[in-house]
Amino acid sequence: MAVDRAFRDEVDGLRDLPGVKLCELTKFAFDPDVQSKELMAALFHIVFVYGHRTHGCTDLLIEVNPRHVRFYEAMLGFRRVGAVKMNDGVAAPAQLMWLKVAAIREQINHFANRPDHLASRSLYPFFFSPADEAGIYRRLTQAGTPAVAEATRRDRDDVEPVPSSGLRRRQEPTTSRRSSDQPEAAILLTA
Fold first, then answer.
1. Which of these, 10, 54, 88, 159, has the minimum number of CB atoms within 10 Å of its CB?
2. Quick check: 100 and 59 in contact, CB under 8 A?
3. Where does the pLDDT of residue 35 fall: very low under 50, low under 70, confident under 90, or very high at 90 and above?
């Protein structure tokens, strides 16, 4: 995983926890001229669906510039792990952040598609409804990637399709393995 370059000790500490399967969100960037909670929530929700349902991830990691830490804490509930370190790959400081996938599911179940909560700072009220999420997962399964095809065999949901988002997704191979030899997942969104 890319976070291993700067945060190997911190990530290994998470890997050692029982039942943990790590997933890393990499290169999650937004055009600074686009100020849309709806679009950001949609992208993150799709990442959640893909990481959790396709790869069975239990914990999500993200490496961010320290100036974005408060955003990820307030909007999505991420927590800081360790101290700020230098990311030599981008020649910038970085903060490792972590979020339990179960906590994401709880927030989605409580707030998703709830107009009465749109004034909150959280992105979760802008997430898709459960029916829309199921449709998104169905579209991902129809994309035909081997990882999604395997997940589909494990999880046969009866879902309705939703309109295409126009996003391209690809799984970035990972070289890191947990001690139990379960592969971890790195999710890369490309424009």
1. 88
2. yes
3. confident
